[in-house]
Design brief:
Blueprint (H helix, E strand, L loop, with lengths): L8 E4 L2 E4 L4 H8 L4 H12 L2 H13 L4 H21 L5 H22 L8 E6 L7 H12 L3 E4 L6 H11 L3 E5 L8 H11 L6 E4 L5 H4 L5 E3 L6 H9 L4 H8 L3
Helix pairs in contact: 2-3, 2-4, 2-5, 3-5, 4-5, 5-6, 7-8
The protein binds cobalamin.
Length: 254
């Protein structure tokens, strides 16, 4: 008979978690099996930028593709950090330090991929007015750059008028807007109306914490996207000529 004390044991992620387990021990159970990838994910978890680069280099030396390492190793490490944060096993500074290490890693993979020096297209990225949560936007930006797009990054807390001016100036194939708070995401609607007033039909890909598909579907140019990793696929689809309706059919969940 297995000796389990239910008051000291809980089951999560298909892993039995004893209360005495440290976050490091829980993470060890969640890291991917492949040794090279595991090392990268572990370095992201530890927030060690040097270790991230070193383990990536090692994985590439063993034949792993730099661009595949972004999704399969760096993002996986960050997902583990987010999961443990959501379960109160890690603190906010841990999330920020790991995100920075992951971003460094993505930049490194991009450099090493040697993919196209000619840009496939231009994208404008920003965080909505009143909102300073920019980690998701940084991820979207580096992923697009890694896939060969030129990204004009307007930064965080960007006023609507500044977004419109950048669209008129840069003529991007799409915009990516980030909002993490319910109080700030209405700025997407203002950007949508101001673009339509100027007869500009550029898709506005919206994501980040508080944003939902139902909310984004309320305005004409909005396209909801949950995972930052899907944004380059949306850009590729736009280059293939998909309009907003077709993009929604392809990328919206229901
Ligand atoms: C880190 C953080 C901060 C940091 C931000 C640092 C930074 N440079 O970004 C600091 C400490 C500054 C901060 C401040 C505040 N925060 Co804060 N913060 C967070 C926290 C813990 C994590 C957010 C994060 O970066 N996660 C890591 C990234 C990688 O995940 P992500 O953003 O979800 O991104 C993923 C997807 O959403 C998506 N994605 C993200 N962006 C985009 C964009 C596009 C285009 C697409 C397609 C996808 C996409 O891809 C990513 C990976 O898949 C969240 C809690 C949480 N669990 O989300 C609260 C949270 C967002 N904060 C919150 C609040 C309230 C605040 C403050 C108002 C607190 C205060 N009282 O001062 C201030 C806001 C100040 C302001 N004006 O903006 C609330 C918002 C509540 C709400 N729903 O409205 C949250 C949800 C915490 C909570 N549970 O209450 N915060």
């Amino acid at each position: 008979m297995i000796d389990i004390n239910p008051q000291r044991t809980l089951v999560r992620y298909n892993v039995r978690v004893e209360q005495e387990m440290t976050p490091e021990e829980v993470a060890e159970e969640l890291f991917p099996a492949d040794e090279d990838i595991r090392e990268v994910a572990r370095a992201v978890f530890e927030g060690d930028e040097d270790e991230v680069v070193e383990s990536l280099q090692n994985a590439m030396d063993n034949g792993k593709d730099p661009l595949i390492l972004i999704n399969d190793a760096l993002m996986v490490g960050m997902e583990i950090v987010s999961t443990l944060y959501d379960d109160n096993m890690l603190y906010l500074p841990d999330v920020i330090i790991s995100a920075q290490a992951m971003i460094e890693g993505i930049e490194y993979c991009k450099e090493r991929s040697g993919e196209d020096h000619e840009y496939k297209g231009k994208v404008v990225s920003y965080v909505v007015e009143g909102d300073i949560h920019d980690i998701g936007k940084k991820i979207v930006t580096v992923l697009l750059r890694a896939k060969g797009y030129e990204v004009i990054d307007l930064g965080k807390d960007v006023p609507v008028e500044e977004v419109i001016a950048a669209v008129k100036r840069e003529k991007p194939i799409m915009l990516t807007g980030t909002a993490l708070m319910t109080t700030t995401m209405s700025a997407f609607k203002d950007v949508n109306s101001r673009l339509l007033e100027s007869d500009i039909n550029v898709p506005v890909v919206c994501g980040g914490g508080a944003v939902t598909q139902d909310f984004v579907s309320q305005y004409d140019l909005g396209l909801y996207c949950e995972e930052a990793a899907d944004v380059p696929k949306i850009a590729d689809a736009i280059l293939k000529g998909f309009d907003i309706e077709r993009l929604r059919r392809e990328f919206h969940k229901h």
